[in-house]
Design goal:
Strand order of the largest sheet: 6-5-4-3-7
Mean pLDDT: 77
Low-confidence stretches: 303-348, 432-507
Structural class: mainly alpha
Helix content: 55-70%
Order of helices and strands: HHHHHHHHEEHEEEEE
Number of helices: 9
Length: 570
């Protein structure tokens, strides 16, 4: 093999080896960048998780939720926590975008480049092997040609010796001449093969160094440039993952600064504190003087009048039904909380909040009434929606079965019954608070007790698709399927202006408009309702106006309201 050819081959192999190592490092750098992205994504996730734990740790507990609604400093802090939670969500979004837009794409690119690199290197090795094979074949043809040439020269020398030697016979000379000619023919053959292979090898070498090897190098260069280009795009995408959430994070910080920071109002908090702990008690009167000069007055003082009348006092003008003396085991707030006596229990709050000062008790009761009324309104809306749906099903049976809604209506009706009875209880507790209708003061207690109105005007249990859930002695048998299901009409828990009649209590007893028979036994402690036994015949004074109750009268002139679904009109 030519020395120059060996040098060129060695140089090409060295270049290919260098490219192989460089491209391998490039792919390894992709792995390195992906590890960086993964760790960065983990940092974002950990940071978001820590922010969420921080928000959860400092979020108001259930027992403190009321204070967070009252005081602006606490209410705005809750808003700050919500904004911090939103910031945590944005950091989670950064982490997710990093995985989807960068990490996964880098993994995909690495796999593609690794396969492409292996293909190019394999092609380069195949071309080098083909070139080496051509060179070896050329060396073989060259060696065979040299051997044939040397054999011909040797045969020629022997022929010339035999031809010049007179002692040799003509046959020997002819034999030497024939051998020389055969060797010469073989030499010519090997020479032609050598020339042909030399031509092929030169062509292969020219193509190898001028076309095939540069093409492979160009492919490796394009692959490397593609890797670098994609890497630059991944840098941009990595930055874009952050930039996308920056407006949201900035908005959250602006809201913390403006919406919450500037919404803190000390005056509002102070007023809320005063309102919360205002007792409503009057200051005590001046202490009387103890006159020791008066006969029989030594050591005696006139007992001061009790000015601080508790709302819970039974003798006060503003006494609240259900309020009595405080439980004997009540020790006060600090005495209960810090009691070191074993087995001591904290005093439980009374249902009517009688443990609170008057103003605080009033606020608690009013809040409870509003809460229950809200629940009633919600159930009423749900029932009205179901009734409309049932009407649609009735008009078009292909849309659904109307009877399939009866169970839901019955359940909602029972819920409303219980809620209105509970509302009635708290309205009795709230009997000390008055409101005006048409210039006339109507007490919560009077309203709850049924004075000055009808069940349609007061908070009474609404009719359901079955016996009311609040009835103590509900019939064991189911209501006959023929009993109608009246639609629920939403009634305000307060007395309407147009329905209030000042002379209603003094009017003459109305005449019966019909009779009815009790299908089930009905018992209730409500003075507005009339107890009845199964089979009892009653006079109907006022028919059901849509609220599920019928006004009836016994033979002893006792009147009251009974569930319409419990009676059968004659």
């Amino acid at each position: 093999m030519n020395e120059s050819t060996d040098v060129h081959r060695k140089q090409s192999l060295d270049q290919l080896s260098a490219l192989e190592k460089f491209t391998e490092k490039g792919i390894d750098f992709l792995d390195n960048f992906n590890r960086f992205v993964r760790e960065r994504q983990k940092i974002e996730m950990d940071y978001a998780a820590q922010l969420k734990r921080l928000v959860k740790s400092y979020s108001p507990k259930r027992k403190d939720e009321e204070e967070y609604k009252i005081y602006s400093s606490l209410r705005t802090f809750k808003g700050v926590l919500q904004e911090v939670g939103s910031i945590a969500n944005q950091h989670e979004l950064v982490a997710e975008n990093m995985v989807q837009s960068v990490f996964n794409e880098v993994v995909k690119l690495r796999q593609e480049l690794k396969k492409e690199r292996m293909d190019h290197l394999h092609e380069a090795k195949q071309e080098d092997a083909h070139m080496e094979k051509s060179r070896r074949k050329l060396d073989s043809c060259k060696s065979q040609y040299r051997s044939a040439h040397e054999a011909w020269l040797q045969a020629k020398i022997l022929f010339e010796k035999a031809d010049s030697d007179d002692n040799r016979t003509k046959a020997e000379v002819e034999r030497a001449k024939s051998t020389m000619e055969q060797k010469d023919q073989f030499r010519e053959k090997q020479k032609n093969e050598y020339i042909l292979q030399l031509k092929n090898t030169n062509e292969d070498q020219q193509e190898h160094y001028s076309s095939k090897l540069p093409t492979i190098f160009n492919k490796l260069q394009a692959m490397e440039e593609r890797r670098i280009t994609c890497l630059g795009k991944y840098y941009e995408t990595y930055a874009d993952c952050h930039k996308k959430v920056l407006p949201v994070i900035t908005q959250c910080l602006d809201d913390i600064q403006v919406k919450h920071g500037q919404a803190v109002t000390p005056a509002e908090d102070s007023q809320a504190l005063i309102t919360k702990f205002e007792t409503g008690n009057q200051p005590p009167k001046d202490l009387p003087m103890m006159d020791l000069d008066e006969p029989g007055g030594r050591g005696q003082t006139q007992a001061p009048e009790k000015d601080n009348v508790s709302i819970g006092s039974q003798n006060g003008a503003n006494s609240l039904p259900g309020r009595g003396k405080a439980p004997k085991n009540k020790k006060g707030v600090f005495g209960t909380i810090f009691s070191s006596k074993k087995g001591s229990r904290r005093w439980e709050e009374a249902k009517d909040f009688s443990h609170l000062p008057p103003n605080q008790q009033k606020q608690k009761l009013q809040g409870k009434i509003d809460e229950i009324q809200g629940k009633i309104d919600q159930e009423v809306k749900q029932k009205e929606a179901l009734l409309k749906m049932r009407d649609v099903y009735t008009a078009n049976n292909s849309l659904g079965d109307p009877n399939s809604l009866n169970k839901q209506l019955e359940t909602i009706g029972k819920k409303i019954d219980l809620l209105r009875l509970e509302l009635n209880t708290y309205q009795k507790f709230m009997g000390h608070t008055a409101y005006k209708r048409n210039g006339k003061v109507v007490e919560f207690k009077d309203k709850a007790d049924g004075k000055g109105g009808t069940p349609s005007q007061k908070s009474s249990p609404t009719r359901s698709s079955g016996p009311p859930a609040n009835v103590p002695n509900s019939p064991s048998k189911e209501r006959p399927p023929s009993s109608p299901l009246s639609p629920l009409e939403h009634e305000d828990s307060f007395i309407d202006d147009d329905d209030f009649d000042e002379d209603e209590g003094t009017a003459a007893d109305p005449k019966p408009v019909g009779t009815c028979t009790a299908m089930y036994e009905f018992n209730s402690d409500d003075p507005n309702l009339l107890n009845m036994v199964e089979g009892e015949v009653l006079d109907v004074i006022e028919k059901d106006s849509g609220d599920g109750w019928t006004r009836v009268r016994r033979s002893d002139n006792s009147e009251g309201y009974v569930p319409t679904s419990y009676v059968n009109h004659l």
